[in-house]
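Ops channel
N.P.: pipeline sanity check, posting one input/output pair.
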């Protein structure tokens, strides 16, 4: 399985039907009663059909957003096409963009691919920053910047993001002599991922038999690198992963988890990892907002009330996507209006309440669907406020054209070997750098 940022994210979102978020005043937006088809946008008298191409489970259809839009716009019909996997969807998207055919009116792009799309396909995408209803100030600045070209054209509107927290088992923490109340847990490692390592060492001293502190060194690596800027690329788009001390520090931290026996030596998003949730095999995991539903699904009813959520040592984001409008489309103006509506704060808040996708529009955070959201499976944790604080603190890190490949290689070629085979961190680092160079023909 392709397991870089958004692919794992989209696979997990497919399981969010059981997320059970609750909000104090979560209500759907006011909708007019169904009407007969009015004048079509193209003047033919027939409804205009807009297609939306996505991968995985975006939630728009499941949350009823398309139905709402069609009721609000009776001359528009919306149809979705979906690929299960982004590693199938994305190469086809690039092929169709280059050919100028075979495209949906609105296309989704995963965050790990957005830089490459803007770099190679900018001339084939419509400007969306000035589309009707779009307010740049309603969005997180770092997310808005990811969809904007160096010359200032915003060609992609952010959908969701993956602000990070730490999910932990209260029962295992208690048996190991660690605090269990979420504020006290957050103070254990506030401000420094090395304090997270120290908490793991404390856990190991009295760990319940058969348990580890965290799931994997690769998970720690992903979380720690998500907190730094720059990361793999600099502002000029140059690959700097090999010489970036912040990435190497994150690497050494993750390797320390492996070498000190603090991990369950698992590979994320594999059957063994899934089963480990059910078996309570580890006590803590760095978890973006979308992982809550995944944990609930895999840990099952036995984990209800035993899991909780605390702030991560430092804010970061893992996952998220964008919507773009190809210039080859036949209904570009209507497509831009639909993309703007789907990514507007009100719709992002509704999607969070119904599906657990955390908004990239900061203007959604004061809305009751977000501000009052709690998660009963995780001890009624105030997940709306917790993840909103994390999102507001995410550093603006440049995204490069091969971010996804670099992240995957660091995890699967490099850190997995340290964790599972005992390979030395220096040797595994060199292997990962060589694999990245080979993949990029450097």
């Amino acid at each position: 399985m392709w397991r870089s940022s958004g692919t794992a994210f989209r696979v997990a979102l497919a399981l969010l039907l059981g997320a059970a978020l609750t909000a104090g005043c979560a209500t759907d937006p006011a909708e007019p009663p169904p009407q007969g088809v009015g004048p079509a946008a193209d003047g033919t008298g027939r409804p205009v059909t807009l297609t939306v191409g996505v991968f995985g489970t975006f939630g728009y259809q499941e949350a009823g957003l398309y139905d709402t839009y069609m009721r609000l716009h009776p001359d528009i019909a919306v149809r979705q096409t979906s690929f299960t996997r982004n590693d199938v969807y994305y190469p086809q998207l690039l092929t169709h963009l280059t050919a100028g055919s075979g495209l949906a009116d609105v296309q989704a792009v995963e965050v790990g691919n957005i830089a490459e799309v803007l770099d190679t396909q900018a001339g084939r995408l419509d400007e969306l920053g000035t589309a009707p209803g779009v307010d740049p100030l309603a969005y997180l600045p770092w997310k808005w910047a990811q969809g904007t070209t160096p010359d200032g054209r915003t060609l992609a509107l952010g959908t969701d993001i993956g602000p990070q927290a730490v999910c932990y088992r209260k029962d295992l923490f208690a048996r190991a002599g660690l605090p269990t109340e979420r504020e006290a847990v957050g103070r254990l490692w506030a401000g420094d991922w090395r304090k997270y390592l120290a908490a793991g060492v404390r856990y190991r001293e009295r760990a319940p038999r058969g348990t580890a502190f965290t799931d994997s060194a690769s998970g720690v690596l992903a979380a720690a690198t998500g907190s730094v800027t720059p990361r793999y690329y600099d502002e000029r788009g140059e690959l700097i992963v090999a010489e970036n001390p912040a990435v190497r520090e994150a690497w050494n931290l993750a390797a320390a988890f492996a070498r000190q026996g603090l991990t369950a030596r698992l590979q994320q998003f594999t059957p063994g990892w899934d089963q480990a949730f059910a078996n309570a095999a580890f006590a803590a995991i760095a978890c973006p907002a979308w992982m809550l539903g995944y944990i609930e699904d895999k840990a099952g009813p036995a984990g209800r009330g035993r899991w909780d959520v605390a702030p991560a040592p430092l804010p970061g984001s893992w996952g998220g996507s964008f919507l773009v409008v190809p210039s080859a489309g036949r209904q570009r103006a209507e497509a831009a209006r639909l993309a703007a509506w789907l990514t507007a704060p009100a719709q992002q808040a509704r999607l969070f309440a119904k599906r657990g996708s955390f908004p990239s529009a900061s203007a959604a955070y004061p809305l009751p669907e977000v501000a009052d959201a709690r998660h009963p499976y995780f001890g009624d944790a105030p997940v709306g406020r917790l993840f909103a604080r994390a999102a507001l603190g995410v550093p603006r890190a440049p995204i490069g054209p091969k971010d996804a490949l670099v992240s995957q290689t660091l995890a699967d070629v490099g850190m997995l070997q340290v964790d599972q085979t005992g390979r030395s961190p220096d040797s595994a680092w060199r292997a990962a750098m060589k694999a990245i160079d080979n993949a990029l023909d450097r």
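N.P.: looks fine end to end. The domain at 163-318+396-439 is CATH 3.40.190.10 (D-Maltodextrin-Binding Protein; domain 2).
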